Amino acid sequence: MAEQMEVLLKTEKKPEASAVLKIVNEMTPEEQKEMLVFLQGVRFAKGMERKTAAKPV
Questions:
Q1: Burial letters for 32-51: b for 16+ Cβ neighbours within 10 Å, e otherwise?
Q2: Which of 47, 33, 30 is nearest to 5 (CA)?
Q3: Average pLDDT of span 10-36
Q4: What is the pLDDT of residue 3?
Q5: Residues ≥6 apart with Cβ < 8 Å to 54
Q6: In whole angstroms, what is the distance from residue 40 CA to residue 8 CA?
């Protein structure tokens, strides 16, 4: 599960990414799944935000 979350973290933020991955690796598989669902929701919301910002008023 942690491998899927690595893709969401930018490589220039390596220290932060390492800290997040350490926390994720300490989670149970169910907690990891919940975290993944949350992050997918964040990604979706950011995408919607970008689409809304790109539309002319």
A1: beebbeebeeeeeeeeeeee
A2: 33
A3: 88
A4: 56
A5: none
A6: 9
What is the residue-wise DSSP string for the chain?
-HHHHHTTS-GGGHHHHHHHHHHHHHS-HHHHHHHHHHHHHHHHHHHHHHHHHHS--
Q: Which amino acid is at 21?
A: L
Q: How confident is the model at residue 29 (pLDDT cuts 50, 70, 90)?
A: very high
pLDDT level of residue 40 (50, 70, 90 thresholds): very high
